[in-house]
Amino acid sequence: MKTYIAYFDETGDDGVTTASSDHFVLTSLYMPAESWQQNFNLMRGLRKELRDKYGFHVTEEMHTKHFLTDKNPYRSYNWSKEVKQEIIKAFTLTIAAMDLKIVNVIIDKTKFKDNNYHILENALKYNIQRIENDSDG
User: pTM of the full predicted structure?
Assistant: First the structure.
């Protein structure tokens, strides 16, 4: 049996009230355990390159929404639109070169009527099922 490392992150809220978001998204990034060091080295290399080329701090988290909308902490860098595009492209190409897979589960909360639907639990169940199905092949 192969061992995997998985990271999960969500966006939207898992509530079903009028103040809630219309969608809940649960994303997982997973990789064979033996690939983590190679993947880590690729990302570390990118981060050092971005530091040297653009002054992007190696330990700065990347939050794409805030990055693209010029929110803090990225605003202080004063990058042009073209530089931001180069940085996003570099992240994308580095992730594409890694030995990993990504699963997105999107729950459209406007499509169901059951207020007792367990959004987070079901999103997690579906996401894990996709990882398990992939690992069977």
Answer: 0.82
Structure tokens at 126: 């579906």
Angle, vertex CA 9, rays to CA 105 and CA 16, nearest 5: 60
| pLDDT per position as a tens digit, 99-116 | 999 999 999 988 877 777
Find the helix or strand (DSSP H, E) in which 47 lies.
helix 36-54
Q: How far apart are CA 28 and CA 128, in angstroms?
A: 9
Domain boundaries along the sequence of the chain:
4-136
pLDDT digits (tens, 9 = 90+) for 38-52: 999 999 999 999 999
Q: Which of 121, 61, 120, 135 is nearest to 91 (CA)?
A: 61
First to last CA, the chain: 12
